[in-house]
Amino acid sequence: CREVVQLTRYLTDADLAASLARDVRDGLRRTPKSLPPKYFYDARGSALFERITTLPEYYPTRAEQAILAAHAAEIATRAGADTLVELGSGSSTKTRLLLDGMRAAQTLTRYIPVDVSDSALQGAIESLRVDYPDVDTHGVVADFERHLSLLPRVGTRLVAFLGGTIGNLTPGPRARFLAACRACLGESDRLLLGTDLVKNPDRLVRAYDDAAGVTADFNRNVLHVINRALDGDFVPEAFEHVALWDAEHEWIEMRLRSVVRQRVRIARLDLTVEFAEGEEMRTEVSAKFRRDGVERELAAAGLALEAWWTDPAGDFAVCLAAP
Ligand code: AVJ
For residue 230, what pLDDT is reported? Predict the structure, then answer.
Protein backbone atom coordinates (compact mmCIF):
# COMPACT_ATOMS: atom_id res chain seq x y z
CA CYS A 1 0.00 0.00 0.00
CA ARG A 2 1.47 3.42 -0.85
CA GLU A 3 0.12 6.89 -0.62
CA VAL A 4 1.00 9.59 -3.07
CA VAL A 5 3.50 12.06 -1.65
CA GLN A 6 1.85 15.45 -1.33
CA LEU A 7 3.95 17.97 -3.18
CA THR A 8 3.36 21.52 -4.33
CA ARG A 9 5.71 22.89 -6.96
CA TYR A 10 6.43 26.60 -7.19
CA LEU A 11 9.59 25.77 -9.06
CA THR A 12 9.79 23.46 -12.05
CA ASP A 13 12.85 21.79 -13.55
CA ALA A 14 12.54 24.30 -16.39
CA ASP A 15 12.64 27.24 -13.91
CA LEU A 16 15.72 25.75 -12.27
CA ALA A 17 17.44 25.23 -15.61
CA ALA A 18 16.65 28.81 -16.62
CA SER A 19 17.99 30.30 -13.39
CA LEU A 20 21.14 28.16 -13.62
CA ALA A 21 21.71 29.39 -17.18
CA ARG A 22 21.21 33.01 -16.17
CA ASP A 23 23.38 32.79 -13.03
CA VAL A 24 26.23 30.97 -14.83
CA ARG A 25 26.20 33.46 -17.72
CA ASP A 26 26.22 36.44 -15.31
CA GLY A 27 28.81 34.94 -12.99
CA LEU A 28 31.29 33.92 -15.67
CA ARG A 29 31.18 37.28 -17.43
CA ARG A 30 31.88 39.20 -14.22
CA THR A 31 35.36 40.22 -13.02
CA PRO A 32 36.29 38.47 -10.82
CA LYS A 33 34.25 35.46 -11.95
CA SER A 34 31.86 33.88 -9.46
CA LEU A 35 29.19 31.19 -9.23
CA PRO A 36 26.33 31.03 -6.71
CA PRO A 37 26.54 28.17 -4.14
CA LYS A 38 23.00 26.90 -4.66
CA TYR A 39 23.99 24.73 -7.63
CA PHE A 40 26.31 22.42 -5.68
CA TYR A 41 23.44 20.18 -4.69
CA ASP A 42 22.67 17.71 -7.46
CA ALA A 43 22.57 14.04 -6.37
CA ARG A 44 26.39 13.78 -6.27
CA GLY A 45 26.78 17.17 -4.59
CA SER A 46 24.19 16.30 -1.95
CA ALA A 47 25.96 12.98 -1.28
CA LEU A 48 29.31 14.79 -0.98
CA PHE A 49 27.75 17.28 1.43
CA GLU A 50 26.42 14.40 3.54
CA ARG A 51 30.00 13.09 3.72
CA ILE A 52 31.25 16.56 4.71
CA THR A 53 28.90 16.53 7.69
CA THR A 54 30.69 13.44 9.03
CA LEU A 55 34.26 14.75 8.60
CA PRO A 56 36.28 15.33 11.79
CA GLU A 57 37.03 18.93 10.70
CA TYR A 58 33.42 19.88 9.89
CA TYR A 59 31.93 20.66 13.32
CA PRO A 60 28.76 22.68 12.39
CA THR A 61 26.40 19.74 11.82
CA ARG A 62 27.38 17.95 15.01
CA ALA A 63 27.27 21.17 17.03
CA GLU A 64 23.80 22.07 15.75
CA GLN A 65 22.55 18.55 16.37
CA ALA A 66 23.84 18.72 19.95
CA ILE A 67 21.96 22.00 20.44
CA LEU A 68 18.73 20.56 19.06
CA ALA A 69 19.10 17.34 21.05
CA ALA A 70 19.55 19.34 24.24
CA HIS A 71 16.89 21.98 23.62
CA ALA A 72 14.23 20.62 21.24
CA ALA A 73 11.70 20.32 24.07
CA GLU A 74 12.23 23.92 25.13
CA ILE A 75 12.13 25.11 21.51
CA ALA A 76 8.84 23.29 20.99
CA THR A 77 7.32 24.65 24.20
CA ARG A 78 8.41 28.22 23.49
CA ALA A 79 7.23 28.11 19.89
CA GLY A 80 3.94 26.36 20.70
CA ALA A 81 3.65 25.56 17.00
CA ASP A 82 1.56 22.82 15.41
CA THR A 83 3.31 23.16 12.05
CA LEU A 84 7.02 22.79 11.33
CA VAL A 85 8.08 24.51 8.10
CA GLU A 86 11.66 23.60 7.22
CA LEU A 87 13.51 25.67 4.63
CA GLY A 88 16.21 23.72 2.76
CA SER A 89 15.24 20.52 4.52
CA GLY A 90 18.16 18.33 3.37
CA SER A 91 18.87 15.31 5.61
CA SER A 92 16.25 14.54 8.23
CA THR A 93 18.27 14.00 11.43
CA LYS A 94 17.68 17.55 12.65
CA THR A 95 14.07 17.42 11.55
CA ARG A 96 13.46 14.36 13.69
CA LEU A 97 14.83 16.08 16.79
CA LEU A 98 12.43 18.99 16.24
CA LEU A 99 9.48 16.78 15.38
CA ASP A 100 10.12 14.69 18.50
CA GLY A 101 10.21 17.85 20.62
CA MET A 102 6.93 19.07 19.13
CA ARG A 103 5.34 15.68 19.52
CA ALA A 104 6.36 15.58 23.20
CA ALA A 105 4.83 19.05 23.63
CA GLN A 106 1.68 17.56 22.07
CA THR A 107 1.37 20.33 19.54
CA LEU A 108 2.62 18.63 16.36
CA THR A 109 0.21 18.08 13.48
CA ARG A 110 1.93 19.20 10.29
CA TYR A 111 5.36 19.16 8.62
CA ILE A 112 6.12 21.23 5.53
CA PRO A 113 9.62 20.63 4.12
CA VAL A 114 10.66 23.20 1.50
CA ASP A 115 13.51 22.51 -0.92
CA VAL A 116 14.58 23.27 -4.49
CA SER A 117 15.20 19.57 -5.02
CA ASP A 118 12.19 17.48 -5.85
CA SER A 119 14.05 14.20 -5.26
CA ALA A 120 15.48 15.32 -1.90
CA LEU A 121 11.95 16.18 -0.78
CA GLN A 122 10.46 12.88 -1.92
CA GLY A 123 13.21 10.99 -0.09
CA ALA A 124 12.80 12.98 3.12
CA ILE A 125 9.01 12.60 3.08
CA GLU A 126 9.19 8.83 2.45
CA SER A 127 11.62 8.25 5.30
CA LEU A 128 9.73 10.42 7.77
CA ARG A 129 6.36 8.90 6.98
CA VAL A 130 7.42 5.63 8.55
CA ASP A 131 8.19 7.14 11.96
CA TYR A 132 5.65 9.99 11.91
CA PRO A 133 2.57 8.44 10.32
CA ASP A 134 0.30 10.75 12.31
CA VAL A 135 1.95 13.89 10.93
CA ASP A 136 0.39 15.52 7.90
CA THR A 137 3.40 16.03 5.62
CA HIS A 138 3.29 18.26 2.59
CA GLY A 139 6.43 19.03 0.58
CA VAL A 140 6.91 22.31 -1.26
CA VAL A 141 9.38 22.61 -4.13
CA ALA A 142 10.47 26.24 -3.88
CA ASP A 143 13.44 28.59 -3.69
CA PHE A 144 13.58 30.19 -0.23
CA GLU A 145 14.94 33.37 -1.79
CA ARG A 146 11.93 33.75 -4.06
CA HIS A 147 8.84 31.92 -2.81
CA LEU A 148 8.50 32.55 0.93
CA SER A 149 5.32 34.55 0.43
CA LEU A 150 3.68 31.53 -1.23
CA LEU A 151 4.20 29.09 1.65
CA PRO A 152 1.01 27.69 3.20
CA ARG A 153 -0.31 29.86 6.03
CA VAL A 154 -1.83 27.14 8.17
CA GLY A 155 -1.79 26.70 11.92
CA THR A 156 0.86 28.16 14.17
CA ARG A 157 4.16 27.75 12.39
CA LEU A 158 7.74 27.26 13.44
CA VAL A 159 9.81 28.15 10.37
CA ALA A 160 13.22 26.49 10.68
CA PHE A 161 16.23 27.53 8.62
CA LEU A 162 19.06 25.41 9.95
CA GLY A 163 22.58 24.30 9.10
CA GLY A 164 23.99 27.80 8.91
CA THR A 165 22.78 28.05 5.33
CA ILE A 166 21.83 31.70 5.92
CA GLY A 167 25.60 32.27 5.86
CA ASN A 168 25.64 31.42 2.15
CA LEU A 169 23.80 34.70 1.51
CA THR A 170 25.83 37.91 1.29
CA PRO A 171 24.56 40.80 3.43
CA GLY A 172 22.16 42.35 0.88
CA PRO A 173 20.34 39.13 -0.06
CA ARG A 174 20.43 38.11 3.61
CA ALA A 175 18.59 41.27 4.68
CA ARG A 176 16.05 40.70 1.90
CA PHE A 177 15.60 37.07 2.95
CA LEU A 178 15.00 38.01 6.61
CA ALA A 179 12.54 40.73 5.61
CA ALA A 180 10.65 38.22 3.45
CA CYS A 181 10.64 35.81 6.41
CA ARG A 182 9.22 38.49 8.67
CA ALA A 183 6.55 39.30 6.09
CA CYS A 184 5.38 35.69 5.90
CA LEU A 185 5.19 35.20 9.70
CA GLY A 186 1.95 35.75 11.60
CA GLU A 187 2.09 37.18 15.14
CA SER A 188 2.29 33.76 16.83
CA ASP A 189 4.67 32.17 14.29
CA ARG A 190 8.37 31.88 15.07
CA LEU A 191 11.63 31.64 13.14
CA LEU A 192 14.26 29.11 14.23
CA LEU A 193 17.62 30.06 12.77
CA GLY A 194 20.93 28.15 12.83
CA THR A 195 24.11 30.23 12.52
CA ASP A 196 27.74 29.20 12.60
CA LEU A 197 29.80 31.43 14.90
CA VAL A 198 33.07 33.33 14.48
CA LYS A 199 35.98 31.35 15.91
CA ASN A 200 39.68 30.64 15.40
CA PRO A 201 40.33 31.11 11.65
CA ASP A 202 42.52 27.99 11.46
CA ARG A 203 39.66 25.81 12.61
CA LEU A 204 37.30 27.54 10.22
CA VAL A 205 39.60 27.06 7.26
CA ARG A 206 40.16 23.39 8.13
CA ALA A 207 36.38 22.86 8.25
CA TYR A 208 36.27 24.01 4.60
CA ASP A 209 39.53 22.41 3.45
CA ASP A 210 39.48 18.93 4.96
CA ALA A 211 42.43 16.56 4.79
CA ALA A 212 40.48 13.89 2.86
CA GLY A 213 39.63 16.36 0.09
CA VAL A 214 35.87 15.84 0.24
CA THR A 215 35.14 19.57 0.33
CA ALA A 216 37.45 20.04 -2.66
CA ASP A 217 35.39 17.51 -4.63
CA PHE A 218 32.19 19.17 -3.43
CA ASN A 219 33.50 22.53 -4.64
CA ARG A 220 34.53 21.18 -8.07
CA ASN A 221 31.15 19.44 -8.37
CA VAL A 222 29.55 22.70 -9.47
CA LEU A 223 31.63 22.38 -12.66
CA HIS A 224 30.17 18.90 -13.29
CA VAL A 225 26.69 20.37 -12.77
CA ILE A 226 27.38 23.09 -15.36
CA ASN A 227 28.89 20.59 -17.82
CA ARG A 228 25.84 18.38 -17.67
CA ALA A 229 23.11 21.03 -17.57
CA LEU A 230 24.60 23.49 -20.04
CA ASP A 231 26.80 21.26 -22.20
CA GLY A 232 30.03 22.72 -20.87
CA ASP A 233 33.55 21.35 -21.20
CA PHE A 234 35.03 22.32 -17.82
CA VAL A 235 37.84 19.96 -16.79
CA PRO A 236 37.17 19.98 -13.03
CA GLU A 237 40.64 18.56 -12.24
CA ALA A 238 42.14 21.67 -13.84
CA PHE A 239 40.79 23.71 -10.91
CA GLU A 240 42.18 23.72 -7.38
CA HIS A 241 40.08 24.06 -4.25
CA VAL A 242 40.74 27.20 -2.20
CA ALA A 243 39.23 28.00 1.21
CA LEU A 244 40.14 31.25 2.94
CA TRP A 245 38.99 33.35 5.89
CA ASP A 246 37.94 36.88 4.99
CA ALA A 247 38.49 38.68 8.31
CA GLU A 248 36.85 41.91 7.15
CA HIS A 249 33.52 40.29 6.20
CA GLU A 250 33.89 37.46 8.72
CA TRP A 251 33.13 34.80 6.16
CA ILE A 252 34.79 31.74 4.71
CA GLU A 253 35.19 32.00 0.99
CA MET A 254 35.54 28.98 -1.28
CA ARG A 255 37.10 29.50 -4.65
CA LEU A 256 38.24 27.44 -7.61
CA ARG A 257 41.69 28.38 -8.91
CA SER A 258 42.54 27.65 -12.51
CA VAL A 259 45.74 25.60 -12.45
CA VAL A 260 46.61 26.53 -16.04
CA ARG A 261 45.63 29.11 -18.57
CA GLN A 262 42.57 27.62 -20.23
CA ARG A 263 39.49 28.27 -22.32
CA VAL A 264 36.10 26.79 -21.43
CA ARG A 265 33.20 26.47 -23.81
CA ILE A 266 29.60 26.35 -22.58
CA ALA A 267 27.67 25.35 -25.65
CA ARG A 268 24.13 25.89 -24.42
CA LEU A 269 24.99 29.48 -23.46
CA ASP A 270 26.99 29.99 -26.63
CA LEU A 271 29.69 31.27 -24.28
CA THR A 272 33.46 30.90 -24.27
CA VAL A 273 35.38 32.00 -21.19
CA GLU A 274 39.10 32.37 -20.63
CA PHE A 275 40.82 31.60 -17.33
CA ALA A 276 44.31 32.95 -16.68
CA GLU A 277 46.76 30.66 -14.90
CA GLY A 278 46.06 31.08 -11.16
CA GLU A 279 42.78 32.94 -11.73
CA GLU A 280 40.34 32.43 -8.85
CA MET A 281 36.56 32.21 -9.11
CA ARG A 282 34.37 32.55 -5.99
CA THR A 283 31.96 29.65 -5.53
CA GLU A 284 30.66 30.17 -1.97
CA VAL A 285 30.70 32.46 1.00
CA SER A 286 29.82 30.98 4.36
CA ALA A 287 29.39 33.84 6.80
CA LYS A 288 30.11 33.34 10.50
CA PHE A 289 28.15 35.29 13.08
CA ARG A 290 28.22 36.85 16.54
CA ARG A 291 25.18 37.15 18.75
CA ASP A 292 24.97 40.94 18.52
CA GLY A 293 25.19 40.80 14.72
CA VAL A 294 22.40 38.23 14.49
CA GLU A 295 20.26 40.30 16.87
CA ARG A 296 20.91 43.45 14.82
CA GLU A 297 20.11 41.78 11.48
CA LEU A 298 16.92 40.26 12.90
CA ALA A 299 15.85 43.61 14.35
CA ALA A 300 16.46 45.33 11.00
CA ALA A 301 13.98 42.85 9.51
CA GLY A 302 11.41 43.47 12.25
CA LEU A 303 12.22 40.29 14.19
CA ALA A 304 13.04 40.09 17.90
CA LEU A 305 15.57 37.60 19.25
CA GLU A 306 13.70 35.56 21.89
CA ALA A 307 16.12 32.80 22.76
CA TRP A 308 19.71 31.85 21.90
CA TRP A 309 21.30 28.46 22.42
CA THR A 310 24.85 27.32 21.69
CA ASP A 311 26.68 24.01 21.99
CA PRO A 312 28.98 23.70 25.04
CA ALA A 313 32.03 24.77 23.01
CA GLY A 314 30.23 27.86 21.68
CA ASP A 315 30.88 26.89 18.06
CA PHE A 316 27.34 27.21 16.70
CA ALA A 317 24.09 28.90 17.67
CA VAL A 318 20.41 28.22 17.19
CA CYS A 319 18.06 31.09 17.94
CA LEU A 320 14.35 31.71 18.09
CA ALA A 321 12.96 34.96 16.70
CA ALA A 322 9.50 36.48 16.90
CA PRO A 323 7.80 39.04 14.67
C1 AVJ B 1 25.16 23.66 4.22
C2 AVJ B 1 25.52 25.74 3.30
C3 AVJ B 1 25.72 25.51 5.60
O4 AVJ B 1 28.32 26.72 4.33
O5 AVJ B 1 28.99 25.27 5.79
C6 AVJ B 1 30.01 22.83 3.54
C7 AVJ B 1 27.89 24.14 2.84
N8 AVJ B 1 30.25 24.27 1.98
N9 AVJ B 1 31.30 22.84 3.15
C10 AVJ B 1 28.33 25.58 4.81
C11 AVJ B 1 29.35 23.75 2.80
C12 AVJ B 1 31.41 23.71 2.20
C13 AVJ B 1 27.43 24.51 4.21
N14 AVJ B 1 25.99 24.85 4.31
Answer: 98
